[in-house]
Structure formats: structure tokens, C-alpha cells
Amino acid sequence: MGALDNNALVAVIGAGAMGAGIAQVAAQAGHPVKLYDNRPGAAAQAVAGIDRQLGRLVEKGRLQPEAREAITARLQPVEAIEALTDACLVIEAIVENLQVKQALLLQLETLCAPHCILASNTSSLSITSLAAGLQRPQQVVGMHFFNPAPLMALVEIVRGLATAPAVAAQLYETAKAWGKQPVQTRSTPGFIVNRVARPFYAESLRLLQEGAADCATLDALLRDAGGFRMGAFELTDLIGHDVNYAVTCSVFDAFYGDFRFQPSLVQKELVDAGRLGRKSGQGFYSYAEGAQRPHADELQSQATVECCVVEGNLGVLQPLAERLRDNGVAVSERAGLGLIQVGDATLALSDGRLASQRAREDGLRNLVLVDLALDYRSASRIAVSWSADTTSLARDQAVALLQRAGLRVSAIADLPGLVVLRTVAMLANEAADALLQGVGSAADIDLAMCAGVNYPLGPLAWAEQLGLGYTLRVLENLQRSYGESRYRPSLLLRRCDAQGARLHE
């Protein structure tokens, strides 16, 4: 089934930032739009606000004046819900409360024509539950936009148990016609994005709680080594800790207390203290006038390094050796276990074990573990940790080598999987479970994480790039270190590794 015709009336209920944004998207796509809010005058104010935003686009040369006039003319604020009876699609963007949304959908079902699609912009509520009790539950579907709706490309099209396939398909095509990147997902807790993204926050929060490093250093590593647009602490400050913590609790409860989604006491303390992030002026960082953002910790070495030895196949770490060569380091090679020797130091890519544990188990002295980077050729920072027996000379030599590659080096405490590696492994693990459980296709899961939360690479594609066997080994070592079900590897990762299969077929 194709997209809704441009002449089809779209109604949006809720004139807050999200509702107004959705109304703008539909109007820009050519639809007549009615915007309703139960607060008197709110819809008219929202339309005026949309017009001002369009005016700014005109001033920047990104929109023609006549296009602004046409879009605004298609937006009609209404003061009574009864004015929506001729809508072909109604999108509700009201308070995130199951009972309130259910009552609204019941009312809409009596007002609107049988063919009208009733869409909810909920970010976490069950579409199946929202449709329960309706005479036409097949017409109810999730259409989850991301804020700000006019700018964010992703839309999750969410099927409830009773949603008609044709209804979901038409909404999917409509979102495409609106210039969005839709993905299809089942109505499960968190859908795709709010489920798969949980480890991004959870692992940084745990690392902070365990004293790995400070917020600024952990954020810098996720940005400068991991390629993420923001670190977890600056991102949760932006989202608001009340919102982010509530979503985590909702997903945790919906999965019956699965420890993969366990909320953080560190974040709860911020919420309890009213330190909600940017909107309150204080979160992990201060946003008071004149406040200075703390700098990431960075090691300095006075050692002189001119050469190193690569032993065996470095695998994922191989581009680092090439970068060292490009920066004038003499790199020789010999058989071995995938290590870099420089002076007294032995460098190795983390495999999810403690540095001290790996040094003991593998018989390695002066072991310095190197964290994962999205691209070792372009990363500007890297994390390291070292075993308890590593001498200060060996540490200096390892740091000096990495600095010769043009990397800023940040040390973290000896914890399993360092920072980027454990975060990526856990994101891939959750994405694999979502794929196994039919939440979405591999392509849609990766697209959702890139388009919805700006990940530099889809978690499933990232796991395949690293190698499923390596990703699985990291998770197994994390689980062995912590002894918790939180780090249990997805059955799909085990199966694909055993079969030599791919996640993206």
C-alpha cells in the first residue's frame, strides 16, 4: 500500500514541542493539517511558533518565502476535538500516560471514520495496550518521532498485536514520503532505540561508579575514540536525568527486572537532588553562567620511542601499527600472539579481561591494554589500563608510543573491557537480542541507532566489523569478571559465531 495522498487531512493532538514539530513535518510534506490541544489557545500559539521557525529558515536562505506562506496556510489550529472528524490520520503527542492515551483513542474512534489511522507518538508505551478495548484495534499503530521532529530523520513504525499489516505499511510509506527514514518494529519495551541504547548510558554510569575515571574523561573517550557525537554524561545532561532515568526504569520494569537494564544509583541520586542536567543548571556538569567544562585527564610521557615490534596478527588493532609507521616509528614484525612490544612494555587490545588477570593468565609482563577505537587511523584519543606489576618505565614507554601515533592517552582504572570496547560490545549484544526476538530487522536496527541517536556505526555492523568471535569473547570475559547475567552473551551471537553466519543476511 502506498503513502497517504497529499490531500489527505492529518490531525495532530498535542501542541507541545513534539506535536508542533510533527504538524510542521506533515504540512511541509503538503498535507492539510489540523492541530488540536485541550489548552485554550495552545494550538494557535504553536502554529505561530512554527511560522516563526519557517521565517528563520527563509532568513537563512533555506526556504523560499512563498513556501513558508504555503506551509503556514496548510496549518489550521482548532479548539474542539470534534473538528478532527474528517482526518485520515490522527497522530497523538500528548502526555506519556497509558490511561490518558487510551481514553483519547476511545474518543477518537467514535469521532473519526472507520478508515482513519490512529497513530501514537509514544516512546515507550505498548501499542497493544493502547489499542486494547477499541472496536478497531487494527487501525492503531505507533509512529514514534524523535525530537526535534523537523530535523531528526528517524521514525519508528510500531506494530501492536492487532495492528493491520496494511495500516503499518501505509504509515511506513507515508513517513518515507515525508522525507523521513522509517523503521518497522514490534511493540516491545523501548521499541528499537530506547531498548538498544540502554547500555550506552549504563556502562558509563557503572564505570563512573567503579572509579574508572571522571565524567569528562569517559565522555571524551566515547567521542574521540568511539566516534560517538556525545559522551553518555553530556548526553544525559542534555536529555534530562528525570527523563532518562524514567525510561531506564520503565524498560527495566517491563523486562521484569532483567539486570541488563538495571537503573543506576548514581543517576538516581542526581534525580533525587534535582540535578536534572542543562534544564536545572546542574547535572554531571555545571551549566551556571561562566562555568568551565572540566578537561579530560591526559597522560604525558617523557620517554623517547623510535621503534616497536609487532608480534603476530594485531587484528582490529592493525591500523595502529600502520599509523605508527606513518608517523616515523620503525615497526618490525615477528611471529607471536598479536602484541606490540616497545621497550619493557607489552601492548595488547583488550579482550574484556582485567589487565592484571590477563597478565597472569597469559604470562605477560608489563602489560598495557589498549581500548577499542572506531578507527585507529583517525581517532584522536585512546584509553589504556595496565596490570598491577607494570613498571612506571614500561607505562611511560607505552604512552610515548601511542603519543608518537598522534594520540592523546587517557588512563582508566584496571576494569574489564575499558570504555569504548565494553560499551560497543554491550550495544551489539542488546541489538543481537532484539534481532533474535524479532523486534526489527538487522538493517532497521542499525538504521534506527544511526538515524535516531547518531551512532557512528550500527551496533550489529560494528560487531561484524570487529568479528563476532571477538565480540562474543569480550562479553564472555565481562560476564566472567562480574559474575552477572547483565553481561550474558546473546544466543544469536553464539549461534552465528558457531555457524560462521552473519547478523546482516
From TrEMBL:
The keyword NAD applies. It holds the Pfam family 3HCDH_N. GO terms for molecular function: 3-hydroxybutyryl-CoA dehydrogenase activity; NAD+ binding. PROSITE patterns: 3HCDH. Keywords: NAD, Oxidoreductase. Residues 190-287, 417-497 form the 3-hydroxyacyl-CoA dehydrogenase C-terminal domain. GO terms for biological process: fatty acid metabolic process; phenylacetate catabolic process. InterPro entries: 3-OHacyl-CoA_DH_CS, 3-OHacyl-CoA_DH_NAD-bd, 3-OHacyl-CoA_DH_PaaH, 3HC_DH_C, 3HCDH_RFF, 6-PGluconate_DH-like_C_sf, 6PGD_dom2, NAD(P)-bd_dom_sf. This is 3-hydroxyacyl-CoA dehydrogenase PaaC.
